[in-house]
Amino acid sequence: MLAFLELMQPSLAECAAALHADGIRHLRVVPVFLGFGGHLKQDLPEQVKAIQKKFADLQISLEPPIGEQPEVIAAIARAVARN
C-alpha cells in the first residue's frame, strides 16, 4: 500500500489503521526517497512511533530508503551511463 508523509493522501497513519483493521500486525515501511533527509531523519520516525503507540500490537519495520538499496543504485548508474 502506498502512503504519503504530507500534502497527499492517504497518510501513513491512515494506511496503518486500515491495514490494522484488516488484521495486519506487521508493516514493512520502505521509504521511496533517494537518500536520508529531514523527512527520514525526523518526520517518518516520529510518525512510526505515533502509530506504534496507537496500535501496540502492530510491529513496524522501517527500512532504509529505496535509493540506498544496491539494486537501485546499480540501476541508476546504468541509466546514467547510457546517456
Structure explained in plain terms:
By secondary structure, the chain is mainly α. The protein has a single domain, classed as 3-Layer(aba) Sandwich (Rossmann fold), CATH 3.40.50.1400. Helix content is 48%, strand content 10%. Strand 1, helix 2 (38-54) and strand 2 form a beta-alpha-beta unit. Helix 1 packs parallel to helix 2 (38-54). The longest helix has 17 residues, at 38-54.
What's the total number of strands? 2
CATH class: Alpha Beta
Largest sheet: 2 strands, parallel
Which word captures the global form?
Answer: elongated
**What is the SS-derived class?**
mainly alpha
Helix content: 40-55%
Mean pLDDT, rounded to whole units? Answer: 93
Q: Rg, please?
A: 15 Å
Low-confidence stretches: none
CATH topology: Rossmann fold
Assigned CATH architecture: 3-Layer(aba) Sandwich
Order of helix and strand elements from N to C terminus: HEHEH
| Beta-strand residue fraction | 5-15%
The structural domain count equals 1
Count of helical stretches: 3
State the end-to-end distance. 33 Å
Topology:
Elements: H1 12-21, E1 26-29, H2 38-54, E2 59-62, H3 70-82
What is the gist of this entry?
The protein is mostly helical and 83 residues long.
Note the main attributes of this structure.
83 residues, mainly alpha, Rossmann fold, two-stranded parallel ribbon
